[in-house]
Write a structure and sequence with these properties.
With 677 residues, this protein is of the alpha+beta class. The strands form ten sheets. Strands 4, 6, 26, 27, 28, 29 and 30 form a seven-stranded antiparallel sheet that branches. A six-stranded antiparallel barrel has the order 7-16-19-18-17-20. It is elongated and about 125 Å long.
Length: 677
């Protein structure tokens, strides 16, 4: 009772204001607890939504869908999250991504700018004789070579040195005429002017006759003072140089015009470089070329392009570029291999940007002759022309510069080039696919001919992941153009066209090709497949050896002995020339990158070879495509195993690729497969 009494007494002592506060706090807590229950439920729901399991897919193979991150089982690329935020957009070419999705996809962008189109062109070739500094020493009269002083090739001679002694009856009689003409003139009386003029004319004609027979002025004066002619006359060298050809021997009888020597002046040489068709866009007259010569390590040389051959070699698909190079000390020898580099810079019209030469006057034959005013060439006498007439310009204004897009931003497949442009002024990151037309590649950039504007922002990293999301959403993408995407052609957001199985295509061989010819092709296929395996293993030496052997095999194969139909024989010659063109420069390959570039062209020829003629043996061949090779241009190759072993990436991306076609052996009867592609 005492406790109860005390509690009641305590309650009476609490002020009324405190009671009011306690009651208000109780009511407020009830309200908050009730309302908070609803909000808590919604928060829990949102949190549950955030915890929804993310589906992980591959940017190259969107049919792969796994519940957790890892590697693609096909190409071994890192998987990306399928849930990329709100991918819905009013436009079918756009994709919206949340901030978190942008970070996960590692999206990076770059602003489109105008700048000079710059490229570094690598060329290879060799040193050759300067054709304008070669002279043929030939006989100017019939006779016998009594003595040869220069009796082997390679010996240096100086201008005026004796080469051969020749006996010539015609020359002997001409000497007699000169001596007699001198004697007649001396015998004419001084007071007989008419006879004196006639004798002087006769003497001049005798001198001119000997000059036309190749004698020097000194030789003619000497003969004129003699009383009897010489039975031998010495022929002297008209220039200094190296004897590069000896066409006669001592004691030989020669006729007028018979070649005796070839003398080459090596104080200046030509550097002949081979430029591929794709490089011609960058090459202009008077551009500077820097050289390295294998025989002279550590030394560098420099010259200017003086000639670009207007005719393309149909066998090698190259155009020869010539540079005139001084060689005063004779270190540069014809036949030496040369590696040259041209650093080209062009404006939007393809003119060479060269402020040092702009406004100058240049020789159209000898670009080393440069003057500040009009005149003639000091070497050939041709009139100088303005540098602008040769396509040389000063530093252009910004409007005259080409529009450049980073190469990493461009997704190329077939004839299409696609970029993803960031849409400005949007709440969420929105990216729009854009088909563009591109020109030549300028280093790490492409020249934009159509489809982009200055200051637009393009995706340079993560564009494959955006493209994968576009495929998954059944929107136009790199592999699925707009006209290939059906509004109903997807299931669960994945385009059915992307997940249909790849089936063998129809093989259309030339049925009239004899089996003996296919069997003769077997070593060529075998060597090619060995090269493909070596490249997949990143083996530089073996792949180089195999491809070099391919060039020899294709040249040794005589298709004319197999009685091929005319069209088949023509096709084989065309394909063999392609293989020869790509293997011809095997000795110049410096790295496995060079070999892989050549292997792309060789693979194209071998695939066409397989389509035209088929192959013998028990193996089935497969046509495989990697869309990421050569900066997303893509490349095909031929293999005898469905297991992907990528020759263009090697260990970096060994399994990247898909089987596109199947070629069964033609050892038995011809078979056809339905085309399911």
């Amino acid at each position: 009772m005492n406790i109860i009494n005390r509690f009641q007494t305590t309650l009476k002592q609490i002020p009324s204001v405190v009671w009011v506060l306690i009651i208000a706090a109780f009511i407020l807590g009830f309200i908050i607890r009730g309302g908070g229950s609803s909000e808590s439920t919604e928060a829990a729901h949102d949190h549950s939504a955030e915890q929804t399991a993310t589906i992980w897919t591959c940017s190259m193979h969107p049919q792969i869908r796994l519940p957790e991150p890892g590697k693609c089982p096909i190409c071994f690329m890192d998987l990306i999250p399928l849930e990329t935020g709100n991918s819905d957009s009013d436009l079918p070419t756009q994709l919206k991504m949340s901030e978190n999705a942008v970070k996960l996809a590692e999206i990076q962008t770059s602003i489109i700018k105008r700048a000079p189109a710059k490229a570094e062109i690598q060329l290879s070739g060799k040193i050759e004789y300067d054709e304008t500094r070669q002279k043929t020493i030939s006989a100017w009269m019939p006779g016998r070579l009594e003595r040869i002083y220069v009796d082997y090739t390679g010996i240096p001679v100086k201008k005026g040195e004796h080469l051969v002694d020749i006996y010539s009856p015609e020359l002997y009689s001409s000497q007699e005429e000169l001596i007699q003409a001198r004697q007649i003139l001396e015998a004419v009386p001084a007071d007989n002017a008419l006879s004196g003029k006639s004798a002087e004319a006769n003497l001049r004609a005798s001198r001119e006759k000997l000059r036309l027979l190749g004698l020097t002025e000194e030789q003619i004066i000497t003969i004129e003072k003699q009383k009897t002619p010489n039975d031998r006359i010495t022929i002297f060298s008209p220039l200094s140089g190296i004897v590069t050809g000896k066409h006669a021997s001592q004691g030989d009888y020669v006729q007028t015009g018979t070649k005796i020597y070839m003398i080459s002046d090596l104080s200046q040489v030509w550097v002949i470089l081979d430029a591929y068709e794709s490089d011609l866009f960058w090459l202009r007259y008077a551009q500077t070329v820097r050289f390295e010569i294998e025989a002279l390590p550590g030394e560098s040389f420099e010259g200017k392009i003086s000639f670009i051959n207007p005719i393309l070699d149909p066998k090698t698909r190259t155009v020869s570029i010539r540079v005139n190079l001084p060689n005063p000390d004779g270190k540069l020898k014809p036949g030496m291999f040369v590696r040259g580099t041209v650093r080209a810079s062009l404006d939007d019209k393809g003119n060479s940007i060269n402020p040092q030469l702009a406004g100058k006057w240049i020789s159209p034959m000898h670009p080393e002759i440069i003057k500040d005013h009009p005149g003639t060439c000091d070497i050939c006498g041709m009139p100088l022309v303005k540098a602008e007439e040769l396509g040389i310009v000063r530093q252009p204004s910004n409007k005259q510069l080409p529009l450049l897009v980073p190469a990493s931003a461009v997704l190329k497949t077939g004839k299409r080039a696609l970029v993803y442009v960031k849409v400005p002024n949007t709440e969420e990151s929105t990216y729009e696919s854009r088909n563009i037309r591109i020109g030549a590649r300028a280093g790490d950039f492409y020249i934009v001919e159509e489809g982009l504007n200055k200051d637009e922002e393009v995706v340079t990293n993560g564009n494959f992941k955006i493209d994968s999301s576009m495929q998954i959403a059944a929107k136009p993408s790199m592999m699925s153009p707009e006209d290939d995407v059906s509004s109903t052609g997807h299931e669960g957001g994945l385009n059915k066209a992307l997940i249909k199985p790849l089936m063998p295509g129809m093989v259309t061989h030339n049925a009239n090709v004899p089996m003996e010819f296919r069997e003769a092709l077997f070593p060529l296929y075998e060597t090619y497949l060995l090269a493909q395996t070596s490249l997949a293993e990143d083996n530089y030496e073996q792949s180089k050896t195999h491809l070099d052997k391919m060039g020899k095999l294709i040249n040794e194969l005589n298709a004319g002995s197999f009685n091929l139909p005319d069209d088949a024989h023509h096709q084989f010659l065309r394909l063999s020339k392609q293989i020869t063109a790509h293997t011809k420069h095997a000795q110049h390959w410096q790295s496995i990158v060079d070999i892989r570039k050549a292997f792309e062209g060789i693979s194209t020829a071998m695939l066409n070879m397989e389509k035209q003629f088929g192959h013998s043996g028990p193996d089935t061949f497969y046509k495989i495509f990697c869309p990421m090779a050569f900066d997303n241009k893509g490349a095909f190759w031929l293999a005898k195993d469905k297991q992907i072993n990528n020759p263009f990436f090697g260990a970096k991306m060994l399994r990247c690729g898909e089987v596109k076609d199947t070629f069964p052996s033609n050892s038995g009867s011809m078979t056809e497969h339905d085309n399911h592609e």
